[in-house]
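Render this sequence as a predicted structure.
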Amino acid sequence: MMKKYLVRLITGGLIVAGLGLVATKFEPVRSVTAAITLINPKQSNKPTKATSNAKPNHHSEDKIQKTIDKMSLSEKLGQLYVADVARGDAAANSAVKNYHLGGVILGSEDFTGSRSSFKNHIKGMQKSAKVPLMIGTDQEGGTVSRLSISRAISGSTYYPSPQAAYHSGGMKNVVAQAKRAARDLKALGINWNYAPDVDVSANKSSFIYARTFGKSAGKTASYVKAVVPAIQGQGVAATLKHFPGYGSAADTHVGGATTNRSLANLKRVDFLPFKAGITAGADSIMVTHIVLKRIDSHRPASLSKKVVKLLRSDLGYRGVIVTDSLQMGAVTQYARAHHINADVLAFKAGNDMLMSSNYRSGIPALKRAIKNKQISIKQVDASVRRILEMKQKIGIYK
């Protein structure tokens, strides 16, 4: 069974997506649940060529290394950002060009005008980029569905949630809807979907529940194993969110949220869908802002090295790790209270890409951290490599 999915990944192409946004442009990110009993924990650290953890060939490595070697520090740091940029073609194109951004987020406010003007806006930003951009959005279906905003742009206003799709047509319909949404995104020039949500929550009244698959960790894992290749097979990157698992925590868009769950419990339940997604070849994983009191009681997960490193050390993940929006209340409140730069702390924690619109101040802050030896060039280069590998996998960096 696993071999069939690996073959699909190889023939369909590896791609990824995921992320959450806030009330402005960084709008909510919900979750989906997953667990998988077929995965041996030891095997998750032994990726095959079909997964996003596979090492690129020597030719690809040489090309990427040559690109990194030619980059200035400003260009490297710009690649770390996936940002909400100013409205208007000229302002957006200028931000992309002058700050060397790695990606741009499209929120609900961007889905206005005609289909042609929308596509031309994306094309303009891509032409302004020295290195092709990841163009991302939240297309989970249901309550978080950017494509549903404008029929004039997407051609439809109905993109069901995974729960609704399953209810009306089983897993076959869930996969069909994931493919359909990914095709529609790709047709518009969007190459990164911040989906699927892989959170597990048994509490139907919780903030995240409606965005999850709504079933057990094991069934959610099966769901993830099916939809990741469905999305990525269309040339769109997928994102597993929100690591290490949202559970029944409060909404981090508006303020801080905590959980007392143990690492053992997370491994037994919430990690299962992430393992399934990693095995399926997901190229990115998004980290939440919840404070996990029994792992790191002092910092939101996205700013915690103790939490982020679990993806590398425990799950053996080698793809792109991206923060949830650093403009969300849980982070902005923490940053103000502790007088820290969230972009710097998030990168120090081990994230590769920063979902942040503070690139104007964040890039200089990162440069100071490098000068003060708080961040190493080696870490920067490693993150840029992973970002370029993701862009190469979806075919925009050749």
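Summary. The chain has one domain: 2-393. The domain at 2-393 is CATH 3.20.20.300 (TIM Barrel).
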